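Next comes the chain:
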Amino acid sequence: MRFKPVPEPPDTLEELESIRAAVPATPDENVDCCARLIGHSHVSDRDEAADWLTFLRALELATNGSVGFARTPRDIDAGHLQAAFRERVAGADAVLEYLETTDRPLEVREVSTQLRGRTTVEEPLERAERLLDWAALLGIVDDEEGGYRPR
């Protein structure tokens, strides 16, 4: 299963951990998980919180069961996060594969062309930028002057 939401990435993996820590340790139908994320992190509204919960599922840092969301006991491990990002986030594999075909840094606009027609996303430029920023945060690509390149 591939997940579509890609929230604006935090500056550090520690911030990712603090967002994940706002998700309950055990599922509880009486807990409003969106409200918890808003109250315990920089997340500002319910739509953004819902995107974060789905994205945390994509990275296998949270689950969604019959009674609600819960964080997984998984550590923030770069290797696992890289694999989950590539395999479970819609468009990530296309962006990363395209970067691997060149020997120069690529700008977001160049990379965004790879998302057209491959996803149902209305804003491929914004999505490409977020995917590339997440890939940089997770250590998959380098963000250099003039663009992104695989590590």
In short: Residues 90-150 form a domain with the Arc Repressor Mutant, subunit A fold (CATH 1.10.10). Helices lie at 13-21, 33-40, 46-58, 78-88, 92-99, 108-112, 124-137. Residues 82 and 138 are 6 Å apart (CA to CA). The first helix runs from residue 13 to 21.
